[in-house]
Structure formats: C-alpha cells, structure tokens
Write a structure and sequence with these properties.
The protein is mostly helical and about 120 residues long. It contains five helices and two strands, in the order H-E-E-H-H-H-H. A two-stranded antiparallel sheet has the order 1-2. The relative contact order is 0.09.
Length: about 120
C-alpha cells in the first residue's frame, strides 16, 4: 500500500527499503534513502494527499446539494410515527415489556429503546 499522505512516509520508506525497491529518473537510478529519493517520495505523497482531499471535498459538496434538494434524508425510521406513538404509550402505561414490543414490531430491542428514550415527534 503506497503512502496516502506525508504522515505515512516513514512507514513507506521502511517498506520500500525492505523490498530493495528503487526507481529511475531519467538516466539515473535513485535510492529511497538518498535525499533525491526522499524528495521524490514526498512529492508523490503530497499529490496523493491533494487528490484524496479533492475527492472528500467533492463528496461533501454533492451531499450538501442532495440535502438541499431533499434527496439526502439520512437513515429513515424503521417504524411509522403512529407505531412509535403507540410504543411510547404502551410502554409508559406498563402494558408490555421492551422485549415484547421488539418481538411484536419485528425490530431489535435497541430500536424500541431509542423510540422510548427519544424525543416526541410532532403529530
């Protein structure tokens, strides 16, 4: 795995030395441990880090655009609002246990717990 940013370079140098890797620039062959080789590797790492940052920036911009257009809404609730209200009411009144509600609604107990502990939704 090649270094993706300048912080990964020390790891990359050691790995390249162990494999006895070398590279050619023009007519000369450089070693990773000499100053020219280290400079070349650092330049490659800077370009790789720049490309990764550009990709992250584009992803964030696309997600912001999708959210603005109403296409990115996050994880949707596993149960509709009336079912969530019924779960809160029945659990508060002591009709059923958390485990029974989970079995009845075919969801995990953690989902029922989030519904019970979460904020009330407007009707």
């Amino acid at each position: 795995m090649a270094p993706r940013c300048h912080q990964d370079l020390p790891w990359g140098w050691g790995r390249l030395r162990r494999r006895r890797a070398s590279f050619g620039m023009g007519a000369s062959i450089c070693d990773w441990s000499d100053p020219v080789g280290r400079l070349f590797l650092q330049a490659l790492a800077m370009v790789a880090e720049f490309e990764a940052n550009i990709g992250h920036q584009r992803t964030r911009a696309g997600m912001a655009r999708a959210k603005k257009n109403g296409k990115l809404k996050g994880e949707q609730s596993k149960l509709p609002a009336p079912a969530r209200r019924s779960i809160r009411r029945r659990y508060a009144e002591g009709e059923v246990s958390l485990a029974d509600l989970a079995t009845e609604c075919s969801v995990g107990r953690s989902t029922i717990h989030r519904i019970i502990q979460g904020p009330e939704e407007p009707r």
